[in-house]
């Protein structure tokens, strides 16, 4: 299995709703990422988990709450979002640091297209 | 700090014609360079990557890119494009070690005209 899966594919939510995005990989990768991509823009890094610990938070508002329950799963909990949060949310995973300067490729999922009304 | 510049936001080209998508980067340390492709309503797919070694890297679908350290460039080329190549192309840079944060360029929309 060499893919990253994301559910749901599409999500429409109101500003008072609570929802979650899910990302899963079974490649044994130990680093997982959340990116946000607005229309006609490049992906922007939000969070990085390494060995199930939050390693990077790119100053993301607290209405986005990541969670890594185990090495295969990554969730993004959403609460009280704004319409400007509408975007494609991409998950990626990587084998993880093995020390030195070796490089491991990031594998991207297909994304969840989120619309906030 | 690292950054990527893609000068062309859109590149229209006729089918079977050659194309070059330009990418320039800046970084104070050694970098890895990538081209990703994104088809409409889909995620990102890695097209090709430069890590070290030969400065010319090739993908399985006919694209190639050349790493030019003196010009800090990593331009993407294809000698003959197909309609199915219509997509958004992102150049990206990553540092070595650590969490290998990937920084993307603003993207170039390749529009192949029949």
Summarize the structure.
The complex is a heterodimer of chains A (117) and B (114). Chain A is an all-beta fold and 117 residues long. Chain A has strands at 4-7, 10-13, 18-25, 31-37, 44-50, 53-57, 64-70, 73-79, 87-94, 107-108, 112-116.
Radius of gyration of chain B: 14 Å
Structural class of chain A: mainly beta
Cα-based radius of gyration of chain A, to the nearest Å: 14 Å
Low-confidence sequence ranges of chain A: none
Q: What overall form of chain A do the CA principal axes indicate?
A: globular
Q: Can you count the helices of chain B?
A: 0
Compute the separation of the termini of chain B in Å: 41 Å
Tally of contiguous helical segments of chain A: 0
Q: How would you sum up the global shape of chain B?
A: globular
Residue share in helices of chain B? under 10%
Average pLDDT for all residues of chain B: 90
The tally of strands of chain B reads: 12
What percentage of the residues of chain B does DSSP assign to strands (E)?
over 45%
Measured between the Cα atoms of the first and last residue of chain A, the distance is 36 Å
The H-level CATH homologous superfamily of chain B, spelled out, is Immunoglobulins
Sheet with the most strands of chain A? Answer: 7 strands, mixed
Please state the second-level CATH architecture of chain B: Sandwich
